[in-house]
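Lab channel / #folding
Pinned by the channel admin:
"Please post every new chain as: sequence first, then the structure tokens as a reply. Keep commentary short and put observations after the output so the thread stays searchable."

First post following the new format, from NK:
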Amino acid sequence: MKFFFFLSGALALSVSVSLAQPPQGVASPGTIYGDSVTTENVRNINSLPQVLQSAQKANVKVSAKVLDVCPKKGCWMKLQVNDSTTAFVKMKDYGFFVPLDIKGKTVIIEGESFIKETSVQELRHYAEDAKKTASEIEAITQPAREIRLTASGIRVVG
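Reply from TO:
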């Protein structure tokens, strides 16, 4: 009986470790993560600040360059909006992840966009995920108001 419990625990641990990894492979043009995303009716992400001035939330399909990705499992991305603004992307229902080599690529993201005030604790968590130094993490002392996207699908375009 002890062997059965040990074997069950070992199996559960190996499955959870394998699920906590970013997808393997190359994020090549045409690759889709999550729901299917077409290339029609795409707007540039730099229009989001104006869209979110008049709406609390907006369903969008935007193209953007990926600046950063969660190095632990590909569960979040940071996008360039313009020279001074970025947007933070999480995957809908934690249902899919992206490979680490998506960093630097241009993507089309379909999903919901909104403005969120992110707590110091959450900002520090993402800084730890991004393997920032202890001094960089400790320097985060104020919440941040940022553009967020909850992606239902992501298509790599370049």
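NK: The first helix runs from residue 2 to 19.
TO: also worth noting, Helices lie at 2-19, 48-54, 120-129, 134-138.
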